Amino acid sequence: MKRIALLGATGSIGRQALEIIEAHPALELCAAASGSQPIDGLAPITQAGGDLTELLERAEPDLVLNAVIGFAGLPATLWALERGVDLALANKESLVAAGELALAAQRRGGGRLIPVDSEHSGALQCLEGRPAAQVHSLVLTASGGPFRGRVREELEDVTPSAALAHPTWNMGPKITVDSATLANKGLELIEAHFLFSLPYEQIEVVVHPTSVVHALVRFRDGATLAHLGYPDMRVPISYALTYPERSVTPIRPLDLAGGMTLEFGPPDVETFPLLAYARSAGERGGTYPCAFNAANEVAVAAFLAGRLPFLGIADVVAEALAAADGSAARDLDDLVAADEEARRHVEETLKVA
Ligand code: MG
Questions:
Q1: Are both 58 and 136 inside the same structural domain?
Q2: What is the pTM assigned to this prediction?
Q3: Ligand 1 centroid, distance to 348 Cα (angstroms)
């Protein structure tokens, strides 16, 4: 029996994870947490809000599924990595913000870090067991979101509800807006850098509108492996929860004979500059990725609240990055300070505007 602590139980990932756990006789939910919604009775130990590491201490799970949204997921990520408890990571923000600290914690703890992000789950499966020296490059695919093909002028009056209508993936509001701005792919680029120890120049992002190919790895001999599947988060969730077993899911097999066209193209970073800002923040290193994430979180919340236009999200993130000090975090306190500084900067900008 694998005892699972589910953090973020009421979100999109959390609800799909519950379905997977319920259907699998060898998976047991030992604890569950939500951000604020009451979840009494969902698991033997439950918690709404508060310090999630207290819940984890009491639950003693074999695996933590971290599906908290944003920087708030960081303490749980570090808790699991430090103790060698397997971590299924759907909270990409914690790895983006705290990459070096998280990997150092994993080296000390010795547990597994299994990505739940579909692209990274796919990449892990293409890369697994193959020496880094054989890898030419990793390709992450992006659907392009609901505004693919539009130019800047056409995005001036975009509403939150238009941004929330994702063409292929059904997800929560924060990540859906991030998909519309391509900030999500920027976060995923940084996430991939840390997960797979690849330099940024070896990670490419391409637009692939139908989201059937999730990731590709090019090898030095000219061969390329790709990971394909219908866009359904239950597949990477199941893979992470049952790794390395790869258990049965209700997802239908890929139908190729029925006709399938796979299209790829370059991302439009003129219209969606957050992808370029993320790459630059990643390359500069230090706490720049943390500042990028923090500024983006505040900007997305402001957009959803009607306080910031769609194109303003990228503008305020750029300003926060320009103002950030960016020096490397020695510890969690440094990181929290960098996160708070970027948040404060965006809030100030919003007040003036
Ligand atoms: Mg993804």
A1: no
A2: 0.96
A3: 30
CATH number for the domain that contains residue 110: 3.40.50.720
Partners of 226 in the beta sheet?
216
* 218-253: pLDDT as tens digits: 999 999 999 999 999 999 999 999 999 999 999 999
Alpha-carbon distance of 240 to 132, in angstroms, equals 22
Taking the CB of residue 266, how many other CB atoms lie within 10 A of it? Answer: 9
| Cα 185 from Cα 183, distance rounded (Å) | 5
| Greatest Cα-to-Cα distance within the chain, rounded to the nearest angstrom | 57
Kind plus residue range of the DSSP H or E element containing 203: strand 203-207
Q: How far is the CA of 231 from the centre of ligand 1 (A)?
A: 10
Domain with 294, as residue range(s), is 285-353
Residue 90: phi and psi, rounded to 5, are -105, -5
Cα–Cα distances (Å) from 238 to 7, 172, 234, in that order, read 16, 19, 6
Read off the pLDDT of residues 7-39 as tens digits, 9 standing for 90 and up: 999 999 999 999 999 999 999 999 999 999 999
Whether residue 269 is found in the same domain as residue 161: yes
Mark whether 307 and 239 lie in a shared domain.
Answer: no
Cα 247 to Cα 241: distance, rounded to the nearest angstrom: 9
Q: How far, in Å, is the centroid of ligand 1 from the Cα of 351?
A: 32
Contact (CB, 8 A) for 220 and 311: no
User: Which residues on adjacent β-strands are paired with residue 47?
Assistant: 33
Give CA–CA dist 9/87, Å, rounded.
15
